Amino acid sequence: MGEKINSYRDLRVYRSAMEAAMKIFDLTKTFPSEEKYSMVDQVRRSSRSVCTNMAEAWRKRRYKAAFVAKMNDAESEACETQVWIEFAERCGYLPARTVAELDEMYGRILAQIIKMVQYPEKWLIK
């Protein structure tokens, strides 16, 4: 690991989730206007929620159950984001290559979140 983690912003998984959310923000600018209040709002919300839930989990590290619950919320939001990305592809708003890239990003994010949930003691305040 090497680096000292002082903040959720120092977590590799948080930085990856933020990068993915910003990529989604940029990509959804090109979606049709009729999707503004449905798909665009939903995929942006869920992708951002991954980050916000991780930040909340970080502040709840005194309590194992609270930390795990917020990380589980982050996991759920990441999975929801993958579903919205699939909808975007099926509706013809995103090319398969972009979808594959985003899916890979979220696959890595999910793997890291799951590992943190499986081994929360590493992250808790003692």
Descriptive tags:
4 helices, mainly alpha, 126 residues
Mean pLDDT across every amino acid position:
96
Task: Count the E strands.
Answer: 0
**What proportion of the residues form beta strands (DSSP E)?**
under 5%
* Broad shape: elongated
Tell me the series of helices and strands, N- to C-terminal.
HHHH
Given as residue ranges, the uncertain stretches (5+ residues, pLDDT < 50) are none
Structural category: mainly alpha
Helix content: over 70%
Separation, N- and C-terminal Cα atoms: 19 Å
Main pleated-sheet profile: none
Rg calc: 15 Å
Note down, in words, how this protein is organized.
The chain is mainly α and 126 residues long. The protein contains four helices and no strands. The model has no long low-confidence stretch (mean pLDDT 96).
Please sum up the structure shown:
The protein is mainly α and 126 residues long.
